[in-house]
Amino acid sequence: MLLKPTRPSLIRTRSKSACTTRPVIRLRRLDDSSTDVTEDVDVDNVEEEISPLRSMQMRIGSLIQNGIVEGQRFALSSDLWRYAKPTAHCDLLITFKSNQDEERMRDIVQWLVDVIKIHEPQLRIEVRHHNLKDCYALYLTATYKSLLKGAELCHIKKNVKSHFGGGLREFCFEEAQCFAGIDGRNTFLTDMERAFIVKQMVDMIRAPTGGITLQTSAKNVRIPEGMAIVPFLTSTNLVEKVLPLHSTEFLKHLQQKWVVSIVDKQPLDEIRDYFGTEIAMYFSWLGHMTGALWFPALLGLFMYMFFGFSFKSTNKNVVPKQDGSQFISDICFVCFAFFNCIWSTAYLESWKRKQAELAFKWGTYDTNCDTYLQDPRPQFRGEYFAPNPVSGRLEPYYPPWKHAIVRYGITYPLTFLCNIFMFVTMLIVFQVQDAANYYFGGSFFLGWICYLPMIVYALMIVISDKLYRQLALFLNDLENYRTDDEYEDFLISKIVIFQFVSAFGSLFYIAFCLKDMKRLQETLATLLITRQITQNIMETAVPFLMEKVKLSQLTYKMTKSMSERTLRRHVEEARKSNTLGEDLKWQQNSQAYFTLGSPTSEGLRRRFSQKRLAGNENELHLLENLNQTDDFQLHSPRLPLPEFKPSDSTELNQAELESLMAAYDRPLDDYLEMFIQFGYVLLFSPAFPLAALCAVINNVVEIRVDAFKLCNTVQRPFGRQVKSIGAWQKAMELLGMVGVMVNCALIGQSGLVQRIWPDLSWGGQVLIVVVLEHIILASKIFIDLAVPDVPHWIRIETAKQEHFRREAFKRESRLLSSVGRSGDTTPAGDNVDNRQRSQPDHRIQRRSVTPAARSMTTRRDRENNCIDHL
């Protein structure tokens, strides 16, 4: 039967309750008798069948259309951070936690600004509001005079003029004219040094006796006595970040010479100037290790290609086949194990000499690591104030016996239990793995079960590493170490012990319990290559992409309330302001007003310049020096502070973007990654001779990966002066000792020993291992004693410098004695002369790095003379 629709007609039907109009479609039906029969079909019934499909199509189409529109808007808003304008000079940036009550946030900002102005009035402060995170930020800079004083307190070394003896010496403010380049306000101190000095100024602001209370509208915060205020606010999540800012132009130059270039040498001097000695020392160590790894890499490649390493059976009840290839493989295995022992010793000794050369070149060779000469950490908690035994300055004091109780009663037992738990878990996983291979190894459908134990173990390693890292940080904070060096050394020891068990435990079990060299070879190759690939991706690619997505999400959220026309206008303005002409103009202005401090806009810089030229030449006017009648309004309804700079523009600056990056505290994870790789190569590479070659390839990539990370994905770290790689040197030496033992043990159970002595008992194998171990350890100790850690020319240069210092001291002593006998007055005044007569060792006190030990009168006169000359 066919239904042929006719022209629809509307039939009005009335119900008793109401009048309704119901559309009806009249259909003509052609039956077999060819007679036309009409039927009335209700439209509502047809719409009930059609409307769900049509509505679904409309909804899908609407979603697609909205997605396209929002995607275009998302990409358009992302241009705001892509074209972020550079930030004018700023020594230190402090950002506050977002997602807080607006009134409470204002109270915190005002309180901290007042505290900084009271304790460090020489710091210039500008408060700005960051639109992306909806938070406030402090832009801090310091005057040149205060930076020079801080350089002395931070023990920064500078070059001395040639006619004063030359060389590097710790900066002394009273003798500023003796240092080369002191007249260059913009060049004498690098950006890294300026940021480090300002951070030390801020960190030295501590709560007074009895503590201090931060009163806010929501909740008061009590800061204990002696605690550093800004680090305490950071620990309580009131202050989010404290960071120095990147120098955009220098960073681009550094990336071209360092990140992009593969063949050229690393610009270590420029890295040191920009990132500090600690990071430069790490990259030098990494490059030195890469060069040293070429020797085992080429030897292992040669042996692997021409002789091969085949492991047929390790069962002592099975007599190995007497073929030539197996015999050569066994000889190569033993020779490679011997070579590893000698190579590791030579590498460690050569690095000691290399780092001594770098430390002497960078002025950190004679850095005193005595804890009493170092300032306490900002996070150091003292029970009360006590004078320093060396300097006499009051500082927080914590009883040593409490350190010992926490360390021996809590830290060591917990660390031991964590390592035992990890080792037992590894044993259980291997037992489950063997059972899975036995029951499901030959099954086609259930063979995937054999992979589950190792997958679970890999996930457990990742999770346990993160959990143990948090535990190690908690225990280190609980132990409350006084200096940064002590804190870092004990943190490294905790992490290295756990990582040693988690990274090498399975290989030890396979090598010495299962005695399966074939499985050891496969497991080592899998762990080494997989770890290298995954760590490089997780270290660089993932953070870089996540950061860009995060910035795009924040800019999209910030501009969501704007119309499309307004958004396009703001983006176009950001693009125009980022042109090359504006870039060059900003560079000229920033160079011209580099010493003016915190102003971050061109109008403010012009206004500062006019004020400075109109007044005293040595007087640098701040925001509070500007008149209220200026076109720039000082006070804002948002934050009634003279230091607040209101901005209604959506234009972003580079400082706001850098504050959203991840922090890079110290290269601990980078050292740890290379330490584990060095262990793979040293301990078990006789089973997999290509391990060193894989390590060389990885290190070439790792240098660029770490450089890219420092330049693009993390905040600029604070420069830190070091003379060596610290605790990692001891860890590498201990690993070298373990490497000797492990390689001797592998030789003892190798196929060559079984071939020569087929009936050798277990006790005989142990005896061979012990004899070989003692011979190689004796050779290692002999090399260590025979090769000096410091090159001869460095000892000569340091002796020359000491000689010049003694001669200068003699000349000054003769001058002071002659002036004292003649009774003439010194330029500093009669009171200084009298004090010098009563205290013959005044020179030592005057040259002390402790400000309290100096005479305020003499200091004030010398400061005025110094600054007037500058």
UniProtKB/TrEMBL annotation:
It is a multi-pass membrane protein. Residues 816-870 are annotated as: Disordered. One of its GO terms (molecular function) is chloride channel activity. It is found in: Membrane. Pfam families: Anoctamin (PF04547). Residues 832-843, 858-870 have a biased composition (Basic and acidic residues). One of its GO terms (cellular component) is plasma membrane. Residues 816-825 have a biased composition (Polar residues). InterPro entries: Anoctamin (IPR007632), Anoctamin_TM (IPR049452). Keywords: Membrane, Transmembrane, Transmembrane helix. The chain crosses the membrane at residues 282-307, 327-348, 410-432, 438-463, 491-512. Residues 271-801 form the Anoctamin transmembrane domain. Belongs to the anoctamin family. This is Anoctamin. It comes from Cylicocyclus nassatus (Nematode worm).
